Amino acid sequence: MNPEPVQESKRGGLLGWMDQRYGVRGLFEFLSHKTVPVGPHSMIWYYLGGTTLFFFIVQILSGLLLLLYYQPGEDTSYETIRFITTKVPFGWLMRSVHCWSAHLMIISLIVHMFSTMMLKAYRPPRELTWVSGFVLFALALAFGFSGYLLPWNELAFFATVVGTESVKATPVLGHWLLEIMRGGTDVTIHTLYRFFALHVVALPMIVFAFIGLHLVVIQRQGMATPMRKAKRLGAMPFFPNFLLRDLILWLLCLVGLLSLAVFWPYGSGIPGLEWELGQKANPLMPAYPGIKPEWYFLWIYQLLKEFPPHFFGLEGPQAAILLVGFLLIIWALVPWLDRKARHDERSPAFSDLGISAIVFIAYLTLKAWDIGGGGHGSVLPDPGAVARVCAYWMLGLAGIIFGLRFFLYGHRWYWLSGAAMLQVVLHGVVGLSYINAGFIALGLLAAGVALSIMRGGSAARGSEVRP
Amino acid sequence: MSEQSEGARGSRRRFIDGLLGIGLLGWMGSAIYPVVRYLKPLPLAGPGGPIRLSEEQRTTIDRERFIIVSQGSERVMVFKDVSEKLYAVDARCTHEGCTVQFLPGESMIWCACHNGRFDLDGRVISGPPPRPLPRYAVHFDEGGDVLVDAENA
């Protein structure tokens, strides 16, 4: 930056010395001009990327500490985790912090992603911020999945069997990928070796690269502002005003994290959010009743249960995984699909897409928890009752969400989320199968949108009454 | 410099670029191929032939009504119905590969992962599994030992 070296510097000391050699003043200049938009919009969404980063830093540090005692191996993986939690002073705390922080990081990341979706912060010129964020989301899931196997307990074993088996759905390369991931045809200790390398070396390096990219593009472009409000906005200096607020929030996150870790060292007791070590993995034991993956994979787990054995010439599980892949690709491409937001116009269809994603995932997740099924011990829950009770929960939830959207945000476009709710009602209340209910809802959605286009109605324009 | 020699220079450059491109591809291939082969696991060389159940394993079947045994990369469930007849099926669910179990009370094979249900011959009764569980033949040899034959289903 400063081609002529060792010249006058107004400051002495270390800073002056650094500036003479590396021109660091430019960086301070940049920081002092960096601002965060302030306006009538809620500021809270600007902090969520920071909290996600905070939990990731905690993951690196607590993971490093766990590595000091953990040894991957047939006779050591399970045993060293047990040793850490029972013998090493505060070992239980380190594992508890690592587990809680992982879940909080995913929660923070998901809320961050949905807020970006609802505020349309992905619109040009920020497409790559969205895509790099999406890649980080996928990497966080890969982190969770690979870390899950490392204690080598029963739950880990079957979660990995199912999770890796679903890779088979990949066209052409499926079986080859499956073997590469497992280090054999079956899940064995060789799978754990591969996941260990992934979890502690490969994924952190890739994540660092993408966090770097994500942050660089944000620094180059500044924070996104709500649509069509640019003129009324003020600015808050990033340094020190916003940074200090960030740090207070990080401190609160740390207090929250440690409280959870101390009082619930083995998790919340909700299936998918608990980490009792349980029994050591034994490939010769059957999967136990009530086995479930982590909460953020529950919707995929439930979808695998809902699909019939065969589906349009594909095997059911392959169709289910391909559907998940298709939906995720749509999600990643939203900045290009949302043509209206590209021109800074309201795009209510994409607000509704975000809500319908919540409806779709929430219903499957509730069902995966077998809420209202009356199953306990060896008695299996009744799927019909689960579908019905979860549908009632969804009706209550949708009442709140749709009410807020209608009265508070003035939303008038409900085609997608309406179809998603129709599927819930047809399946849970009327009693059709999940797949048939989905087809009917999609059919009515297509017919409704087509009719609306012919009449030049609101579905075609995607217009929305302003609040 | 004449136009003709300009054109010749251009085509020479394209030719050299093409050669360089081929060289680059070859170089990439020779770097990636060993890594891919390294990642591909070696085939598991297990003992072939039928599985012979030990005394202990037969006691387990009498007590639990079923047992899961392995040989090489195979996992086989051997179980006994109410009429004391022995069956053997592949223990890996055809849905997502979880290990199934035998429910003697309901005379049914069940996978706890996604609620797949099979009859004693491995045929799907309900749930998402797309294919029946492969069956294995159960023999008794002269000494009364139980042999499970993966080849001879």
Word description of this protein:
By secondary structure, chain A is mainly α. Chain A has 3 domains: 33 residues, no CATH class; 276 residues, Up-down Bundle (Cytochrome Bc1 Complex, Chain C), CATH 1.20.810; 122 residues, no CATH class. Chain A has 19 helices and 4 strands. In chain A, the strands form 2 sheets. Chain A has a two-stranded antiparallel ribbon with strand order 1-2. In chain A, strands 3-4 form a two-stranded antiparallel ribbon. The radius of gyration of chain A is 25 Å and the shape is globular. Helices cover 31% and strands 28% of the residues of chain B. At the A-B interface, helix 7, helix 8 and helix 11 of A face strand 2 of B.
Quick description:
Chain A has 467 residues and is mostly helical. Chain A is 65% helix and 3% strand. The longest helix of chain A has 33 residues, at 189-221.
Ordered list of secondary-structure elements with their pairings:
The complex is a heterodimer of chains A (467) and B (153).
Chain A: H1 13-22, H2 25-33, E1 35-38, H3 48-67, H4 77-86, H5 91-119, H6 127-149, H7 154-165, H8 174-182, H9 189-221, E2 234-237, H10 238-263, H11 298-306, E3 310-311, E4 314-315, H12 316-332, H13 334-337, H14 339-342, H15 348-368, H16 383-408, H17 415-430, H18 434-454, H19 458-461
Antiparallel strand pairs in A: 1-2, 3-4
Helix pairs in contact in A: 3-5, 3-10, 4-5, 5-6, 5-10, 6-7, 6-9, 11-12, 11-15, 15-16, 15-17, 16-17, 17-18
Chain B: H1 3-39, E1 51-52, H2 55-64, E2 66-71, E3 74-80, E4 86-90, E5 101-103, E6 108-111, E7 116-118, E8 124-126, E9 135-140, E10 146-149
Antiparallel strand pairs in B: 1-10, 2-3, 3-4, 4-9, 5-6, 6-7, 7-8, 9-10
